[in-house]
Amino acid sequence: MRLSRYFMPVLKETPGEAQVISHQLMLRAAMIRQTSAGIYAWLPLGKRVLANIEKVVRREQDRAGAIEVLMPTIQSADLWRQSGRYDAYGPEMLRITDRHDREMLFSPTAEELFTAIFQNGAKSYRDLPRNIYQIQWKFRDEVRPRFGVLRGREFLMKDAYSFDLDYDGAVHSYNRMFIAYMRTFAAMGLNAIPMQADTGPIGGDLSHEFIVLAPTGESDVFYHENWLKPRDTSGINADDRVGLAAFINGLNADYAATDEKRDLAAEAACGAALKQSKGIEVGQVFYFGDKYTAPMGVTVQGPDGAPVTPLMGSYGIGVSRLAGAIIEACHDDAGIVWPEAVAPFKLALINLRADDGACAAACDKLYADFTAAGIDVLYDDRDERGGAKFATADLIGLPWQVIVGPKGLAAGIVELKRRATGERIEVPIEAVVGRI
Ligand code: ATP
Ligand code: MG
Ligand code: MG
Ligand code: MG
Fold this sequence. Notes:
Strands 3, 7, 8, 9, 10, 11, 12, 13 and 16 form a nine-stranded mixed sheet that branches. By secondary structure, this protein is of the alpha+beta class. The longest helix is centred in the middle third of the chain and has 21 residues, at 167-187. The mean pLDDT is 96. It has helices at residues 21-28, 44-63, 77-83, 85-88, 111-121, 167-187, 241-252, 264-270, 319-329, 357-372, 386-396, 406-410, 432-435; strands at 32-36, 39-42, 67-68, 74-76, 94-97, 103-106, 130-139, 154-164, 192-196, 206-213, 219-224, 256-258, 274-289, 300-301, 307-308, 311-318, 331-332, 335-336, 347-351, 377-380, 400-404, 413-418, 424-428. 40% of the residues are buried. It folds into two domains: 7-336, 2-Layer Sandwich (BirA Bifunctional Protein, domain 2), CATH 3.30.930.10; 347-435, Rossmann fold, CATH 3.40.50.800. Bound molecules: adenosine-5'-triphosphate (ATP) and magnesium ion (3 copies). Belongs to the class-II aminoacyl-tRNA synthetase family. ProS type 2 subfamily. It is an enzyme of class 6 (ligase).
């Protein structure tokens, strides 16, 4: 993409409305603009980040055997009456009336709809286990939308729903999502700690929240310092029920809990290794058995012909919140420092002298070569001073910068800068595409 033809209205000043660094940087880097309280337009750079986060989430869901669908955002109140949540949910639910006076709502989560769709399609025990998911916008009329996309009213969520015949199977489905979440967050450069959590309006008796430690987080969390080291999940086979359960039990042996689930005895056992801090909830997994299937009358025919009520779990990831959470974890004084997997482009190609024919020709050629090699490049071909180009490249945080100026070019050299470390090296121009 040539910056001269892109839509990236970066801001020089930090907008006064933004209190936390990720919100400030998302506005300054032209990723988002607020259109109403807690509702955001995603500009091109932000849209690319969101798509990359989705890509990682989708890859790990698919790898865990979950099946993607897409449900409507607007749902009927009747469906929510069947579970009893229409009245219970309270003012966070945005309620809508259509022209025929039918009560509708904008989905804040989707247990009821997934349960109904599953009931419609699954007839026998052979149709289980299944895990079905979507990546879809949700709306919650939060009392205090704030911190940009970290607490929006409209936000993008991955929500998955598992259906099993028995408790052991349901726990395995839960564990599969647990490990998929660890892999998802690690792939985005985050150390998200799974913590014992309260189940809130979703209900149920087994739950973990995945928390990214950050001073700007809204959750108070308590954990053993072992959690500060990222865990290696590469050797884990999620199809091995016993091995997976043993691995997760091993993880849970290190204490980690949100403030609603504190265990003072476990904390005392941690001794000096107990840590307390703030964190951002980027995902949550729940097991809640027949909380929805029983009141909604869902059964399948069991192997012996008798009806069985499926046991469910649900599993959420805050896809749009992650864009903010990653920035909270990955930034410096100059701007964002994107982990490779979610960066909007892999590199910035910076022409220091757009008015110099040789520089422009060399950059045009590099741009074509990078593109041919399948590398996403943002090419700063604007007629601007070098300093302004550097500042923009640092602000938007692409992992690499390739800097082309007349002096180096005369010697056949360009500069390669790694955004994360600031380290710059000189590379022969013909070797630079191969270096990335
Ligand atoms: P919170 O405690 O932050 O209000 P929640 O526990 O109400 O979140 P869940 O029902 O567990 O949220 O939804 C799954 C995921 O959706 C959360 O883990 C979070 O990442 C994301 N999420 C929830 N509410 C918001 C919001 N208002 N803005 C952005 N993301 C959100
Ligand atoms: Mg909430
Ligand atoms: Mg929560
Ligand atoms: Mg939650």
